[in-house]
Design brief:
flat; mainly alpha; 112 residues
Length: 112
């Protein structure tokens, strides 16, 4: 009767505790739980290592810039391609023919 008076969340929490308690009784479940725990620990370690790479990358870029400057290369940016002058454009426009283009006529849809 006391069970009925509990709200739904309390009953679910009690059932969840019972299920977790019984999982360790199943064959192979302990190994699965151990592996998932080990996986979580390894993921945490990997995240810490990845976070420590950002400062190293910043230092590396700064050092690369310094080396480029010392070697006389300047910046590593690419120079923009040479642009055509307006006179070059006008001369190519003058070479074009002035004959009108042929237009294709549309055929009317077939009548049914």
């Amino acid at each position: 009767m006391v069970e009925r008076n509990k709200d739904l969340l309390s009953r679910l929490a009690d059932r969840g505790e019972q299920v977790v308690g019984r999982i360790t009784d199943l064959p192979g479940a302990k190994g699965l739980l151990d592996r998932t725990t080990a996986l979580a620990k390894r993921m945490d370690e990997m995240q810490k290592r990845l976070r420590s790479l950002d400062p190293l990358e910043k230092r590396l870029t700064a050092l690369e810039r310094r080396v480029d400057k010392l070697e006389g290369k300047g910046t590593t940016r690419k120079k923009p391609a040479t642009r055509r002058t307006t006179s070059a454009r006008s001369s190519t426009a003058a070479k074009r023919t002035t004959t009108p283009r042929r237009t294709t006529r549309r055929r009317p849809p077939p009548s049914s």
